[in-house]
Design a protein that fits this description.
Strand order of the largest sheet: 1-2
Largest sheet: 2 strands, antiparallel
Mean pLDDT: 83
Low-confidence stretches: 51-55
Order of helices and strands: HHHHEEHHHH
Number of helices: 8
Structural class: mainly alpha
Length: about 160
């Protein structure tokens, strides 16, 4: 019995997933992309041209338009951050994801006008981290460590000068 396009797409993506790490969202997108490619290949074999391709182009144009309408400020929301390169939503934009676009977090921030101090994470995650840091007194510890380091530097300079 012949396999369906969905089964073939699942097998292809399954083979890809065994050779590299893929999160569930990446697997889902890969299956969709492979399915569309197989569907186009089948249509070409059967001599059907144009119909599905035009529909896919309209969908891609729509996604591109939505991506262009997304502002950097609007991309960071309460429970997600949207990658301005591909339009995917995450809780946090990882270095690994940005490397897939050929960018470092610093380059991404510069490209889209984010402050270098801006976390590439959902507001809820940033707020949670801020709360934990406050509870642990990390701000006070940082100030104290800076004071100690400055005092040691001054002491070392006076000893070298004496």
């Amino acid at each position: 019995m012949a396999k369906t396009l969905v089964e073939m797409a699942a097998e292809i993506v399954g083979a890809q997933a065994t050779h590299g790490k893929m999160n569930p969202q990446e697997v889902s997108e890969a299956i969709s992309t492979v399915f569309k490619a197989l569907k186009r290949a089948r249509a070409d074999e059967e001599g059907i041209t144009g119909f599905e391709e035009r529909g896919e182009e309209r969908e891609e144009e729509k996604e591109g338009r939505e991506r262009r309408e997304m502002t950097p400020k609007g991309s960071i929301q309460k429970n997600r951050i949207t990658c301005l390169e591909c339009g995917q939503a995450f809780k946090q934009l990882s270095r690994r994801h940005l490397e897939g676009h050929g960018l470092t977090p610093k380059e991404y921030k510069k490209k889209y006008g984010f402050s270098m101090r801006q976390a590439l994470a959902a507001k809820a995650i940033s707020e949670q981290r801020r709360k934990v840091a406050t509870e642990k007194g990390l701000g006070k510890k940082l100030v104290e460590a800076r004071r100690r380091k400055a005092a040691e530097k001054i002491a070392a300079q006076t000893e070298a000068g004496a």
